[in-house]
From TrEMBL:
This is Succinate dehydrogenase, cytochrome b556 subunit. InterPro entries: SdhC_prok (IPR039023), SQR/QFR_C/D (IPR034804), Succ_DH_cytb556 (IPR014314), SuccDH_FuR_B_TM-su (IPR000701). One of its GO terms (molecular function) is metal ion binding. It comes from Halohasta litorea. It is found in: Membrane. NCBIfam families: succ_dehyd_cytB (TIGR02970). It holds the Pfam family Sdh_cyt. The keyword DNA repair does not apply. One of its GO terms (cellular component) is membrane. Keywords: Heme, Iron, Membrane, Metal-binding, Transmembrane, Transmembrane helix. It comes from the Archaea. The keyword Methyltransferase does not apply. The chain crosses the membrane at residues 21-41, 80-98, 119-141.
């Protein structure tokens, strides 16, 4: 016989203070997954400028004639906001990968008793890797 459980309005974000570590892990994983999908389209749009570039299309960047692909990349990388978004993208990707691997282990029955700890470990490791990446991403931005 089937049983039903009253889970309460756990989806109600007004009750976010009551969310468990597992709920946060679920929210962050969905969020980061869909941010990565969104980035993929941006990435393809930028890389697509290599097609007109290969046909010889050029733009003027800071008084110099450059191919449209190089011009797009150089102009984007000259913006501080793009460098900051890149750090955010790394954080999102690292968290999604670490938490995703953690979930795959959980699916295999490994680490079932320490799911909260492994989630916190994913967060801390993501933070450490993100902070360590900042000098690389910001280099030459000023
Ligand atoms: C090593 C890399 C990756 C690993 C280990 C990984 C792992 C996972 C796992 C295990 C899930 C299912 C979570 C669950 O049980 O609910 C998931 C969901 C998801 N992943 Fe990844 N993933 C990776 C890379 C990516 C990339 C590159 C993208 C996007 C371009 C992506 C987009 C998504 C999305 C959108 C979901 C949520 C799907 C839904 O709403 O149900 N993932 N990922």
């Amino acid at each position: 016989m089937s049983q039903s459980y009253n889970r309460g309005l756990i989806e109600d974000f007004g009750r976010w203070r009551e969310f468990s570590a597992g709920m946060w892990a679920w929210i962050f994983h969905k969020f980061t997954g869909w941010v990565l999908v969104g980035y993929l389209f941006t990435h393809i749009a930028v890389l697509s400028t290599s097609i007109p570039a290969s046909a010889g299309e050029t733009v003027v960047y800071e008084g110099t004639q450059v191919d449209v692909y190089t011009g797009t990349i150089v102009a984007l990388e000259s913006l501080l906001v793009v460098r900051i978004l890149e750090v955010g993208l790394l954080a999102v990707a690292v968290f999604h990968i670490l938490n995703g691997l953690r979930l795959l282990f959980v699916d295999l029955g490994i680490g079932l008793e320490s799911q909260d700890k492994s989630f916190y470990a994913s967060l801390i490791l993501t933070g450490a890797i993100t902070v360590a990446s900042v000098p690389t991403f910001i280099a030459g931005a000023f």
